[in-house]
Amino acid sequence: MSREGKDNKLITKKIFKDAIMAAFKKLDPRVMCKNPVMFVVEIGFVITFFLGIFPTAFGEVAKDMTTIRIYNLIVTFILFLTILFANFAEAVAEGRGKAQAESLKRTKKDTKARRIIGKDEYEIISASEVKKGDLVLVEAGELIPNDGEVVEGIASVDESAITGESAAVLKEAGGDFSSVTGGTRVVSDYIKIKITATPGESFLDKMISLVEGASRQKTPNEIALNTVLVSLTMIFLIVITALYPMAKYLGINIQISTLIALLVCLIPTTIGGLLSAIGIAGMDRVTRFNVIAMSGKAVEACGDVNTMILDKTGTITFGNRMASEFIPVAGVQSSDLIKFSVLCSIKDETPEGRSIVELGKRLGYIIDEGEYEIKEYLEFSAQTSMSGLTLMDGTIIRKGAIRSISEQVRAIGGYVPDDLHEISDRVSSLGGTPLIVSLCGKILGVIYLKDIVKPGLTERFERLRKMGIKTIMCTGDNPLTAATIAKEAGVDSFVSECKPEDKISIIKNEQSEGKLVAMTGDGTNDAPALAQADVGLAMNSGTAAAKEAANMVDLDSDPTKIIEVVEIGKQLLITRGALTTFSIANDVAKYFAIIPAIFIAAIPQMEKLNVMRLGSPYSAILSALVFNAIIIPLLIPIAMRGSKYKPAKAEVLLLRNILIYGLGGIALPFVGIKLIDLIMFPLVKLIGIS
Description:
The chain has four domains: 13-101 and 212-288 and 568-687, no CATH class; 131-198, Calcium-transporting ATPase, cytoplasmic transduction domain A; 305-318 and 453-555, 3-Layer(aba) Sandwich (Rossmann fold), CATH 3.40.50; 324-447, Calcium-transporting ATPase, cytoplasmic domain N (3-Layer(aba) Sandwich), CATH 3.40.1110. The protein contains 24 helices and 21 strands. The strands form three sheets. Strands 1, 2, 3, 4, 5, 6, 7 and 8 form an eight-stranded antiparallel sheet that branches. A seven-stranded mixed sheet has the order 9-21-20-19-10-17-18, sandwiched between helices.
């Protein structure tokens, strides 16, 4: 599933072969009626086929029965190709999704599971028999039978079957990395898992269903556009029906098959044939980017996003704050600060703690744990905002946030140095995090922890700004640190000291102004905000609660990918709009081809409208009908790959759309129909249709 490993060819031989077979299967009226525009074409096909066998069935007068029969059958054949091409476009889009689903299905094997039935007791059962709530034991080399949460143990898990990434990820009980996916493999140690999904309803099952298109529903915009297309079809149907008595009144012997050809050319068959393929291809592009969209609506909503909520840590910055410098307060030796900072961190397994020890080593301070008898180790917690050691001789060493350490120092009779806040503010203004170190109630100084802004983000946020999307950074850092990071990254605004409930408030405030909001998250505490957002992108490495709440899941667990997902959503909307514009615009040229052809015998002045100088009325009708059919497969690459998108304001995109697809939709049929007529006219003469 990795992008590098995916076949980027638009249509493989297998997809092409399967799509041809599917195009014929979709001729079933029960399938065709789901696409009203193309269903009208199919009804026309049935009528013209009937007229090809019985030319006078509806009372039509024909001087040369054989010639009219051939003409009707030619119209029938072209209509048949039009339907097949539309079905083929949809089948190609579905075929790409099914090809991806096959690779996912290969991870679903009939494996065995060890269900725990008592203390140190378990039974071997088939993975398909595992039920929600069961506890299972999975050891190194074994597949995880179904989705679940780690309740005991720690292990490396190979998720390459669904992410394509070869590096194993660490899974452990508690925290935001306890969620595991069925079909992935444990590569070291063991874990006990509480199953959270029933057979057939795992995350992998949902992925397969969504990628195959089995559970794809039409989006609101797609339904609205479909309603417009049906309305246009009904209008043209009424107009064409009215033409028949009008032609009889004028004394024109008009063929019903000609009126059907006119109807098919004037109704929006191009976009009608490609509409479903565009929607399927949009989800396909997101999936090929290693993001699973839970619905087409989610992809579509991405295209309308106005505001993006981004966590600072792990999204805008790398997230691993590293010790960069030791800064003592006045009156304290630098060596003392370094020594006790390292001593305080020797039991600290966090990235920050390890970086302090590492920086101390580089500066020549290596602590031997055997020299010190440790009475108590205080782990960092959100409540205390500090960590540290208490030695057997009563020495108390602490490190933590400035407020926590200051309060602790004052509580045991110490004082806060005058220059502490100045040093702390200076570190914060540089975008760093100040970590204060104290020894038995005396503050020694500040450890400068630095979090690095990911490269290239400034340019990416500028792209979003050009799209009209506002970016808001959320962080638990103090206002000074938050302001510095926000400025360096180039976000539009930020919220400092942000709590989980604050994210929901931000989202609701933006939505109350009529804006669509996107956000990323991976923890259980992010679940409410992910559910509240119009586009919620959960990390695959995150908790089950986050993935259930979101409407998209990133298999690569890259929070910044939401920027690309938004661009894909906009590309989907632009592609649909572009091809709709083209479909309606190219009807103009067909007016100049068919209308003069029908009425020129009774109204010679209509010859002035024959600007293309087409060979004969019948060749004009057939040429327009052929062009109407072949334009559908010619546009499949645009429907599948999407119209090229460049960040710009809405009015610029609209103008570009009109110039390229509007004017292009008018001009191309004039050229295409004329070229086809150069071939069609000699054939018409050969057959004897005049």
